[in-house]
């Protein structure tokens, strides 16, 4: 479970056991205990975010701040995804 960032008390990470073929680029967010079903956010080709689910039940105010942070760091996230998985596709 590669941790990408910690921000505002949350862990932003990739789930290392992705399905094959690898899903489009996305990150997961959890407060304490990273899991495969933690909140999932797609990263678009333009570096924007799209919430797939909020399974971690992150409060709206915190989630908005996290999405701004993720978009501001989307280029680095894309680079880390490619380094880790060796390929990159986009949901949209």
Report on this model:
There is one protein chain. The chain has helices spanning 60-72, 74-85; strands spanning 3-7, 10-13, 26-30, 39-43, 49-53. It is of the alpha+beta class and 92 residues long. It is globular, with a radius of gyration of 12 Å. The mean pLDDT is 93.
In short:
The chain is of the alpha+beta class and 92 residues long.
List keywords for this structure.
92 residues, alpha+beta, 5-stranded antiparallel sheet, 26% strand
Furnish the topology, listing elements before pairings.
Elements: E1 3-7, E2 10-13, E3 26-30, E4 39-43, E5 49-53, H1 60-72, H2 74-85
Antiparallel strand pairs: 1-2, 2-3, 3-4, 4-5
Strand order of the largest sheet: 1-2-3-4-5
Radius of gyration computed on alpha carbons: 12 Å
Please describe the biggest sheet, giving its number of strands, its sense, and whether it closes into a barrel. 5 strands, antiparallel
Task: Bin the strand percentage.
Answer: 25-35%
- What is the typical, i.e. mean, pLDDT? 93
Low-confidence parts: none
Number of helices: 2
How many strand elements?
Answer: 5
Q: Distance N terminus to C terminus?
A: 24 Å
Number of domains: 1
Report the oligomer. single chain
Please identify the structural class as seen in this structure: alpha+beta
Order of helices and strands: EEEEEHH
CA-based shape: globular
């Amino acid at each position: 479970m590669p941790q990408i960032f910690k921000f505002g008390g949350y862990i932003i990470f990739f789930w290392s056991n992705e399905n094959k073929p690898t899903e489009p680029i996305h990150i997961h967010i959890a407060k304490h205990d990273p899991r495969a079903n933690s909140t999932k956010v797609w990263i678009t080709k333009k570096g924007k975010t799209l919430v797939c689910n909020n399974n971690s039940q992150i409060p709206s105010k915190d989630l908005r701040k996290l999405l701004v942070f993720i978009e501001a760091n989307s280029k680095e996230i894309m680079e880390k995804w490619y380094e880790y998985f060796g390929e990159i596709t986009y949901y949209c």
